Every structure is written in C-alpha cells, then in structure tokens.
C-alpha cells in the first residue's frame, strides 16, 4: 500500500507572448521534476502564454498559439508518466476562461477554469476572462482538431471537479482563489481532497511574502492536507516583478521553500510527503469530520495512475522547516535588481545610463544596479549558463566571465553628473566617489551652456529676461528657470544614452534610468519631462523612508562608504542659486511637508481609501500628540491641493517597479482624474466645521 508521494512545483520566468521560450522553460521544469522522482508537476498561472498578455488575450492568435504549445507538450516523451498541470486561456462556448489543463500520457484529464478572478490593484482579469460560476459542475469541452489528433479524445471534462488517482485525491485552486473568503480548498478538504494545488501569478510588494506563506499554511492547518503553490517569477513585460516563493506545505507547516528572488529562469521544488500524516491529522479534528459528513461532493475524474509506489516504507519524507523572510532592505536590493536584469537582457540593450546627482534617490538607484551586478556574478559562479550567455551578449564579448561586480558595472553602467552653476561641489564629489566605489563609467559635464542658450532664445523672442527669486524675480520666473535645467538634463541623458557607447567605440545603446521615489510622485514634486522621465525607474514604487534604510543596508553589506555623506546631507534639487557657495534649497522646505508625512498621506489616500475629510478625521487621532486639529487641517489641505494640482504628471510617469501599495501609478494601479477642482471647497468646508466644533 503506497503512502508517500513525491510532487513538484516550480517558479518559471515566463514572458508574455514568448511561446517558444515559455515552452522551453516548461519542458525544463518537467524534466527536472521527473529526474527528482516527482509524479506530479505544477506550473504557474497562464504559463504557456505568460501571465501579462493583457489585451492580447482578446486575440485568437493567443488562444491558437497556446494550443500549439499544448500540442508540443502532449506529444513529447518528456511528459510521459507524470501528471502535468499547465496554465493557458481556453475558449469554451465562446466564453474565455483562465484555465488549468491537467494531462497524463497524451490524455487530457480535466480542464479546470478559474472561479475567483483577481480584479483589484494591478489585476484586471475580469476585463479578459469570465469566472466559472457553476460550482461542482462539469461540462464537455470539444477539443481543437490539433489536440484531438494527439490525444484521440473528442471531448474532455471542463469545470469544477477534482482528480481521483489510485492512492489520493487532488483539487486545484488558481491564485486569487487562495485569497478569497470562500476558498475552494475548504470544501475540497471536507470532501476528502488530500492534495491542493495553486498556480499563481502573484507579484512582489514590500512586506507581502509572509501573507502568502501564512495563507498557504493556514489552508491546511484547520483542515489538514498537502498544499502545493507555484508562481511566476521575473519581469514578464511590465511594471510587476513576480517573486517566485514556490512552496509545499503539509498540515499547517512548510516542508519546502523556493527562492523569492533569483536569476534562475527555472526553479523546481520537490517534496516527498506521507499521505498517512494527512489522514491521521484529520482523524482527530471532530468538527472537521462532522462538517465533512454533510458536504456536497465534487465530481471526480478517475485517473488510472498512482502518485506513490507500492513499496515505499523506506522512502524518507520531508520535515517541516522555518520559512526565512527577507528584510525590506534585502527585498529592495534583490527584487528591483532582478527586474532590471530581465529588462536589460530582454530589451537587448547594452546597459544603463543614470543621471547621478549625489542625492539619496539616484544613489539608491545606482546601488540597485550594483546589486544586479552582484546577482549576475553570483549566478555565473553557481553555474547558471543562461545568465552567462546573456552577460556575454550584453557586453559583446563571447569569452567574458563576470566575476567582479565592479568590473561588470564598468561595462554595463554609465553614470553622469550634470552640473549647473547652482550645483555644489559637495554633491559632485559624492557622485564621483560613489561611482568609483561601484565601478560605473562616470561622466562629469556642465549644462550651463545649454541652459543659457534656451533662456537666450526666450529673451530674443520676448525681450524679457527671467530671474531667480533671490535676484528679485517672481516665483513664476524662478520655477521656469528651475524647470529648464531639469528638462535639459533629460535631453542630455537620452543623447548620452544613445551615443556614449558609440563615442567609446562600443556597440549598442543604453537604457535611461529614472530615480523619482513614490513619495515625490505622489506629491508631484518633480518637473514634468525632467530627468525623472526615463525608460524605467527601479525605485518609483519605494518610499523615501525605505530608501534611506536601504542606503544604510548598502553601507553595511556592500561597504559603500561614499553613501555615509549622502545619507547625512539634506535632500535638495539644487536648481536655485547657491548662497555663499552652499545649498539653500531643500526638498522638504520646497514641498511644505516632510517625507515621513508624505508616506502617511499616501497610505491613507490609497490603502485606507481616505478623501480629505476622512484623512483629517484619522490624523487628528494619529497626530494628537504633535499637532492641534487646526494644524492637521492645514496640513491635509496643503497635501490635497498639491496632490491635485500635480496629478497630471502621473499620466507621463516613467514605468516603475511596483513595490508599494500606495503607489500613484496612473497606468493601471491608481486610476484617478488628472484635472481636479483643486479648491476642494465642499470637502475643506467639512473639515473647517469639524475644526470649529473641536
């Protein structure tokens, strides 16, 4: 009598619409799973086409090519004698579903459509798919001819069913269903399902991993069972980084943990577990057994196959492990670095260019690129031939072996300090010293000639010469002169990105990196089309507070001592004239609020769904020790005025790594108008009445 089963799950770095690459990675994961003795293999959500296809799901080509990939999988000897569970879109009776296709030995066992679709935050699944609403109901699905010719089947079961093998019972969940209040695993477990599977397309958010792990472990803590979770990993073509964390849990405890961040395109996690442990765990939970005796049963698809072997008494099983979570600083160091590497290699560019100002934000961005170089060298050292091949192609050297992060940084990373007459020698020195310590190819240049030329054109046309406030000019004049400097830097960044390597006799172009943090974007404290306008921004979803902690982490872990003076200096744009050679302009004074306050406003606005009045009501309690109600009212009004005046800037925000749940990203995550009535007259009157009452 078999009792131990060996199962495999995986994290795959799939890429939207890369059917050839996706197929190759699926095959590799199946081969690894089989080589480790697994009899069941689970893959990520929509792994055949890639999760992030977006409106390409509407196209019949996406469905056609997905079935062509499925055909290759079905007919391959690699998929024999192992139950394969793959994800793809399927059109059933002219309705598009997000499905799992489960097959064994050239026969499709079940097509299981997703029941609960993810439709909040970054997810828009209801735009492309319809949830399966017929609980515990199965219909006939007529297979396309190309699949019929391989399987010999005309129809297969389609719907909400479970698989009954010779030795156990398996039930599938898909991503969001784990997070739903009425998760299918609850009723499945009561109906005798012992192995639950979950194929996910779950992206990284700072401090989120523990929530996913806790949900998986709690799924089997009350009901017993084995829970297997697969997830996509990497950048599959947009702002999200899918962070792996494939895992296997039994009876409320983790028995196998995959990595959250790595450059491995294919990671397979295998565990051997004892079915009798599930049965004995359930036996003493009387409340569970009473509920199970009343449950409405699932349709069962019988499978003439066993996950266990008849004589397996001597087979060792996995024991519970303690999950190790990364600190937020480690997450910032690893997640955006892996995302940058995927973007660089898949865009087929030769490296990055960063305007390095000597401030915290651009320095943090530089440190993330340096961390990327660390990850590349480590992956090559550990034998990752894919990373080695990509690195050689990027640097255009077929014999190159990346061993030293600083040396790799020199090849793929150009930093540029763009000085003006308003720049201090301190920031110039800080940028130069940091560039030396990380190894980047560093350029120093002055933008004064270009700025004077642009202002000169205005003077010729209008006969007027704008002046800074310190020289008697109006605030309008001063702001315009600051914006000219900022926009000149963007133009020069793109010029050098296109031609810097050409000037050095090297092929290729560079991707321009932006470095505006999430708080500045929320407040709109940036010039539209300045050097925050770039190709991508690895820190655009990270708060100033977290970036400061990350800088401290880099000082301690990368020994980048240049960061100490950067940490201690007050943040400044350096766009206004110096006073006695020293910086007189600071970010927080310009904004009229601190970065710490901005982070609080951002979380209340987005996560707590607070408008001006609700935010005021919450803050009079949160800040009662430091502010009077009238002061709170003034701060809230100032924030909402500035936020609404500058919201239009979010429509052109550089695509940023999504790391924070209060991101103001206008593309998909934070949908708001960009033309506001910035007086907020009704809302502010409500606040004023409450202030007077208090």
From TrEMBL:
GO terms for molecular function: ATP binding; glutaminase activity; NAD+ synthase (glutamine-hydrolyzing) activity. GO terms for cellular component: cytosol. Its EC number is 6.3.5.1. Gene3D superfamilies: Carbon-nitrogen hydrolase, HUPs. Pfam families: CN_hydrolase, NAD_synthase. It comes from Pteruthius melanotis. Keywords: ATP-binding, Ligase, NAD, Nucleotide-binding. This is Glutamine-dependent NAD(+) synthetase. Pathway: Cofactor biosynthesis; NAD(+) biosynthesis; NAD(+) from deamido-NAD(+) (L-Gln route): step 1/1. PROSITE patterns: CN_HYDROLASE. In the C-terminal section; belongs to the NAD synthetase family. Residues 5-275 form the CN hydrolase domain. Homohexamer. InterPro entries: C-N_Hydrolase, C-N_Hydrolase_sf, Gln-dep_NAD_synthase, NAD/GMP_synthase, NAD_synthase, Rossmann-like_a/b/a_fold. GO terms for biological process: 'de novo' NAD+ biosynthetic process from L-tryptophan. CDD domains: GAT_Gln-NAD-synth (cd07570), NAD_synthase (cd00553).
């Amino acid at each position: 009598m078999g009792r131990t089963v060996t199962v495999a799950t995986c994290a795959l770095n799939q890429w939207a619409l890369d059917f050839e690459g996706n197929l190759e990675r699926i095959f590799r994961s199946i081969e690894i799973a089989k080589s480790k003795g697994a009899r069941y293999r689970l893959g990520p959500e929509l792994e055949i086409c890639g999760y992030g296809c977006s409106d390409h799901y509407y196209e019949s080509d996406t469905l056609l090519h997905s079935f062509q990939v499925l055909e290759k999988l079905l007919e391959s000897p690699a998929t024999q004698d192992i139950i394969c569970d793959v994800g793809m879109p399927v059109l059933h009776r002219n309705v598009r579903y997000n499905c799992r296709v489960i097959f064994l030995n050239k026969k499709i066992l079940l097509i299981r459509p997703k029941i609960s679709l993810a439709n909040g935050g970054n997810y828009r699944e209801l735009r492309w798919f319809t949830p399966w609403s017929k609980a515990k109901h199965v219909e006939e699905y007529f297979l396309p001819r190309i699949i019929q010719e391989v399987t010999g089947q005309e129809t297969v079961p389609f719907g909400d069913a479970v698989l009954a093998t010779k030795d156990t019972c398996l039930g599938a969940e898909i991503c969001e269903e784990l997070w739903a209040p009425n998760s299918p695993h609850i009723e499945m477990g009561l109906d005798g399902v012992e192995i639950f599977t979950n194929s996910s397309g779950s992206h990284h958010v700072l401090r989120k991993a523990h929530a996913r792990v806790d949900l998986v472990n709690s799924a089997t803590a009350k009901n017993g069972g084995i829970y297997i979770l697969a997830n996509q990993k990497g950048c599959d073509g947009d702002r999200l980084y899918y962070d792996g964390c494939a895992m296997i849990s039994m009876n409320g405890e983790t028995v196998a943990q995959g990595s959250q961040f790595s450059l491995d395109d294919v990671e397979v996690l295998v565990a051997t577990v004892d079915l009798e442990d599930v049965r004995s765990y359930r036996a003493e939970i009387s409340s569970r057994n009473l509920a199970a005796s009343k449950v409405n049963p699932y349709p069962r698809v019988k499978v003439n196959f066993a996950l266990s072997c008849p004589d397996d008494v001597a087979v060792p099983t996995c024991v519970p492990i303690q999950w190790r979570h990364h600190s937020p600083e480690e997450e910032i160091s690893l997640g955006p670095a892996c995302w940058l590497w995927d973007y660089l290699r898949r865009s087929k560019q030769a490296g990055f260019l960063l305007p390095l100002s000597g401030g915290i934000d651009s320095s943090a961005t530089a440190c993330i690129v340096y961390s990327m170089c660390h990850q590349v060298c480590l992956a090559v050292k550990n034998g990752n031939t894919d990373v080695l091949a990509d690195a050689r192609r990027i640097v255009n050297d077929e014999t190159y072996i990346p061993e030293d992060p600083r040396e790799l940084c020199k090849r793929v990373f150009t930093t540029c300090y763009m000085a003006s007459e308003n720049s201090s020698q301190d920031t110039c020195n800080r940028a130069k010293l940091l560039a030396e310590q990380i190894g980047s190819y560093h350029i120093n240049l002055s933008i004064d000639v270009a700025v004077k030329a642009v202002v000169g054109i205005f003077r010729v046309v209008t006969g007027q010469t704008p002046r800074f406030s310190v020289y008697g000019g109006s605030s309008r004049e001063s702001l315009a002169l600051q914006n000219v400097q900022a926009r000149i830097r963007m133009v020069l960044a793109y010029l050098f990105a296109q031609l810097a390597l050409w000037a050095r006799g090297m092929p290729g172009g560079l991707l321009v990196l932006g470095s505006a943090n999430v708080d500045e974007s929320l407040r709109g404290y940036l010039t539209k089309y300045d050097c925050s306008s770039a190709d991508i921004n690895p820190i655009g979803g990270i708060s100033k507070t977290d970036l400061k902690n990350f800088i401290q982490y880099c000082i301690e872990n990368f020994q980048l001592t240049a960061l100490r003076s950067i940490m201690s200096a007050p943040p400044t744009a350096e766009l206004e004239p110096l006073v006695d050679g020293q910086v007189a302009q600071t970010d927080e004074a310009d904004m009229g609020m601190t970065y710490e306050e901005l982070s609080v406003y951002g979380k209340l606005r987005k996560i707590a769904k607070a408008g001006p009045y609700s935010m005021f009501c919450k803050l009079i309690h949160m800040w009662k020790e430091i502010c009077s109600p009238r002061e709170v009212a003034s701060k809230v009004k100032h924030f909402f005025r500035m936020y609404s005046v500058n919201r239009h800037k979010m429509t052109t925000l550089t695509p940023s790594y999504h790391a924070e749940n209060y991101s103001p990203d206008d593309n998909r995550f934070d949908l708001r108008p960009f033309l506001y009535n910035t007086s907020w007259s009704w809302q502010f009157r409500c606040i004023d009445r409450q202030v007077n009452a208090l």
